[in-house]
Amino acid sequence: MKKWKLSAVTLMIWPYLGFAVSWAAGRLELPSAFWLYVLLTAAVYIMNIVNACSCRGEGAAYRLSFWNMLIKLVHIPYHLFLFLLGILFLAAMAVPALIFVSPFLAVVLSVISWLLLLTSSVYGLNAIVRGKKEGKLSVGEAVCHAVLHLFFVTDVISAVLVFRKIRRREKAGRAEK
User: Fold this and answer.
1) Nearest to residue 55, comparing CAs of 160, 111, 127?
2) Per residue in 112-160, pLDDT tens?
3) What is the spatial distance between Cα 152 and Cα 40, in angstroms, rounded to a whole number?
4) CA distance 84 to 148
5) Cα–Cα distance measured from residue 144 to residue 154, given in angstroms and rounded to the nearest whole number
6) How far is Cα 148 from Cα 117, in angstroms, rounded to an integer?
7) Mind listing the pLDDT tens digit for each residue in 13-36?
8) Rounded to whole angstroms, what are the CA distances from 66 to 27, 37, 87, 106?
9) Is 77 helix (H, G, I), strand (E, B) or coil?
10) Helix runs in the chain, H state only
11) Which 3 state secondary structure label does DSSP give 56?
């Protein structure tokens, strides 16, 4: 269980660690630090996908939905920063030297953000599947929330709603027993 939590917490702080690595690599002139971070990012993402898919047992939907919501909420500032940076790059296209570079950088930032969204959404999608299997979500709710987990902003809203529904229905189930 501790490994499971450590993996989720690592995903929460990993994007912010990228800022520190970028700053340190620039200050210390270590270009290889960036590539090491990229390689480790792939490892962290794969580790979390495996982690989310391996959560089983009673209360798995609740645990997954909790960590999904927490990860999504912690990542809001990171996604906002990347969005604003992308807007800044697109606005900088007024400078002739940046006409070709700015769209490329905006696309790269979008891909980085999208990959993080999809990796964190694995927790939510698994929570939805487990919630459906445990009878805490209907088919319609499960399909609706699964689709919402694939888009920016709606994924956070859906994560909070799924957590609240599963928690409420789990408490009601315990009260009946």
Assistant:
1) 127
2) 999 999 999 999 999 999 999 999 999 999 999 999 999 999 999 999 9
3) 24
4) 23
5) 11
6) 12
7) 999 998 888 777 776 767 777 788
8) 38, 27, 32, 31
9) helix
10) 2-28, 31-53, 60-91, 101-133, 139-148, 154-176
11) coil
CB-based contacts of 173, cutoff 8 Å, min separation 6: 136
Distance CA 37, CA 17 (A): 9
Type of residue numbered 17: L
Rounded Cα distance between 139 and 145, Å, is: 10
Residues 6+ apart with CB under 8 A from 101: 89
Six-digit token pair at 171? 């408490």
Task: Specify the DSSP class assigned to residue 98.
Answer: G
Contact between residue 130 and residue 166 where contact means Cβ atoms under 8 Å apart? no
- The Cα-based distances of 44 to 6, 25, 29, 51, 76 in angstroms read 11, 20, 25, 10, 19
* The amino acid at 3: K
DSSP 134-170: TTSS-HHHHHHHHHHTTSTTHHHHHHHHHHHHHHHHH
pLDDT tier, 93 (very low <50, low <70, confident <90, very high otherwise): confident
CB 68 within 8 A of CB 11: no
